[in-house]
Design goal:
By secondary structure, the chain is an alpha+beta fold. The chain contains 14 helices and 31 strands. 21% of the residues lie in helices and 29% in strands. The chain is elongated and about 105 Å long. Bound molecules: zinc ion.
Length: 677
């Protein structure tokens, strides 16, 4: 392409003079490329070549992860299938377990060792997680409980031979919350299978980093049990082994597989777990089995065990001191369970968009019962999951159980633990949030230990839509969010960027903003202000579908949204996610083309004063009281720190207001309104 004549002319002194002479084609040149020196422009931090810089992505797409943001043709992922049998001692709080792991190495690399996660070691006094609890306390760790904490590994054996009948002890090394298992024989690449048997035990902490633990109720303890078996670390094309320790703040990164669970407890206890109960006839009474069948056909909640029945021995099968509960969940990244003699249980059918059914279940103590509290839990679970299934991706599991326990709110595949004292709006909020995690990170299995915002933030975003929808807006916020006010918190200079090196890299007090509300607000901005709901929803749905039951990175997300929406959004990722940049746009002036005739139009001048850029919305109020809106694309900021445009005014302008609906994260509203003097 040839350089345009006007561009060359603009470099010459005097070229700003309008040229009246006709060229060889008879055209009279118009005064193009006239840049006025703007002596009234304020000081600004805005640097458009920085905001719109190239090379956002530090690497190109490849055959594992494509430039489009989807898994590449050679994407691979390893697999971990678990057979887990555990016995609970409800006096000593000890869990004794046997794990048979089938690990499939689909990577192109052979392995001489594997890494596993021993999360219970966090609660040892000498753990790294205990060491980083500040004097002022923390939500994480064990709240200072001194007990015989951590995994006791009795044996680690490789199974081989016909029907895996040969068990060979293998060497293992434990460091903090990780265990390295040294393999006697190299594990083959491209589908090599390892069978490992581990015998272990641990004592449950009362408070397990707000993710598990024990709640005492009048009718018995509620055990909410998670991080309860040695779990495979993820081996991937991004980091190789992902071995960051469990110190408390960062959650989990796990392989997918099928789980078979056998939980043995005292016969008085009821167990709920991830997935489907395979032996209801053995563990419930005949009357309760009948009620389960009713619930499976009912959109209204059906009581399986009422609060009154909890203390009635007839509400448990007779004649046995112990019972083994058998559950199965397929294609999941984890499995958890809860047990208690105190459980009230109810359930209702969930109707999924593909015509499939699932079951919403709640288990809670009598103290939490009643319509104002957990009596509505199952209705909430059903409302949340049915909505998100329709909106994003179908719920993949046969059951969804909400358990009232000691964690404030914690998610696992097919089961969540929520505060036993939650009620009303708070209970809706926590049930909706924890089951919203089905989509992030249970379906879309991102690395929570490093990128908490990709599960908490994305989930918080979908919660805004499910909450607005539930029961004709019963819990919809009364007023829309004031993005300008929120921006003062979201972009406060004391905050770290969202894309820091994981939750472990953030001040604990900033977690709520940086993992939850700020990334969620970022998606609201993308959906409502930058792409529009139709383009955003399709792109976001595509991200979920592409990465369902896989392991996306932030780049895979950014690239997918850009490719599917057809929009370069690197300026936005850079300002909101990679940096903690602020937005401050000012309306500087209004000048008329002809001050004696307002109908000839007005020049409106805006300044961009901070490091971030966004599209512009203006409300222009005329003297006669009429208002009008003007929208300008973000491209006005691609090579300008100030921008003047001609507004087709028909009469005198009374005021110009930037961001009249307060939907932009402009932290300084003081300069947003220009008023006629
Ligand atoms: Zn969450």
């Amino acid at each position: 392409m040839l350089i345009a004549a006007g561009m060359a002319d603009a470099q010459q002194p005097g070229s700003q003079q309008p040229q009246k002479r006709a060229d060889t084609f008879g055209r009279v040149a118009r005064p193009r490329f006239v840049e006025f020196v703007d002596s009234t422009a304020p000081q600004t931090k805005y640097n458009y070549t920085e905001t719109f810089a190239p090379f956002f992505y530090t690497k190109n797409g490849n055959e594992y992860r494509a430039a489009t943001g989807e898994p590449g043709p050679k994407y691979w992922q390893n697999r971990a299938d678990y057979q887990l049998a555990a016995k609970l001692n409800d006096e000593t709080n000890e869990i004794t377990g046997t794990e048979v792991l089938t690990y499939t190495n689909n990577s192109p690399l052979k392995m001489n060792f594997i890494w596993m996660q021993l999360d219970q070691n966090l609660f040892r006094q000498d753990s790294r997680g205990s060491a980083i609890v500040p004097i002022g306390g923390s939500r994480n760790g064990g709240h200072g409980q001194v007990f015989d904490a951590g995994y006791k590994i009795k044996s680690v054996k490789v199974l081989s031979g016909p029907n895996n009948t040969i068990a060979t002890d293998v060497k293992y090394l434990i460091d903090d919350t990780r265990m390295q298992v040294l393999l006697p024989n190299e594990l083959n690449a491209n589908g090599g299978v390892l069978k490992l048997k581990i015998e272990y035990s641990f004592i449950s902490p009362d408070y397990g980093s707000d993710r598990m633990g024990i709640l005492k109720t009048k009718n018995g303890k509620i055990f909410t049990i998670a991080q309860w078996y040695p779990r495979m670390c993820v081996f991937d094309d991004v980091m190789g082994w992902n071995t960051l320790p469990y110190t408390g703040p960062g959650e989990f990164f796990l392989e997918y597989g099928d789980f078979d669970l056998k939980i043995t407890v005292a016969a008085k206890d009821i167990v709920v777990a991830s997935g489907e109960l395979l032996n209801p006839q053995e563990v419930y009474t005949p009357e309760q089995v009948k009620r389960w069948a009713q619930a499976a056909n009912s959109d209204k909640t059906v009581m399986i065990r009422t609060p009154e029945e909890v203390t009635d021995p007839k509400s448990r099968p007779a004649g046995k001191s112990e019972l083994t509960w058998h559950f199965r969940i397929k294609n999941a990244r984890d499995a958890s369970w809860a047990a208690s003699s105190s459980f009230v249980v109810d359930a209702a059918r969930m109707n999924l968009p593909g015509g499939k059914k699932s079951l919403a279940i709640s288990a809670y103590p009598a103290e939490s019962a009643g319509e104002a509290a957990w009596g509505r839990s199952t209705e909430f679970v059903k409302g949340s999951i049915e909505f998100n299934s329709k909106m994003w991706y179908e719920y993949p599991y046969p059951a969804a159980t909400a358990v009232a326990g000691t964690p404030g709110g914690m998610e696992y595949p097919g089961i969540v633990f929520c505060g036993a004292t939650a009620r009303g709006r708070g209970l809706w909020g926590v049930n909706d949030h924890e089951f919203g995690h089905t989509w992030f990170p249970m379906i879309v299995g991102s690395n929570e230990r490093l990128y908490g915002w990709m599960d908490e933030g994305f989930n918080t975003f979908i919660n805004t839509l499910s909450t607005a929808n539930f029961n004709n807006g019963e819990y919809k916020p009364a007023r829309p969010v004031d993005a300008e006010r929120m921006a003062q918190f979201f972009t406060a200079p004391t905050l770290e960027p969202i894309l820091s090196n994981g939750p472990d890299n953030l001040k604990e007090r900033n977690n709520g903003t940086l993992l939850y509300s700020k990334p969620s607000a970022g998606l609201v901005l993308l959906r409502e202000q930058i792409l529009g709901p139709e383009r955003f929803d399709y792109a976001f749905k595509t991200y979920i579908k592409r990465w369902a039951f896989k392991h996306p990175t932030p780049d895979d997300f950014f690239r997918t949204i850009e490719n599917v929406s057809g929009e370069s959004l690197q300026w936005f990722w850079r300002g909101w996610f990679v940096n903690n940049w602020r937005l401050d746009v000012a309306v500087r002036s209004v000048k008329y083309v002809d001050s004696t005739n307002y109908s000839k139009g007005a020049y409106i001048t805006l300044d961009n004063l901070e490091k971030m850029a966004m599209p512009v919305i203006l409300e222009i109020k005329m003297k006669n009281g009429k208002t009008d809106r003007a929208k300008l694309p973000v491209e006005i900021w691609e090579r300008n720190t100030s921008w003047t445009f001609k507004y087709p005014s028909t009469e005198e302008i009374e005021s110009v207001t930037y961001d009249p609906d307060k939907v932009m994260p402009d932290f300084n509203p003081a300069n947003n309104v220009w008023k006629k003097q």
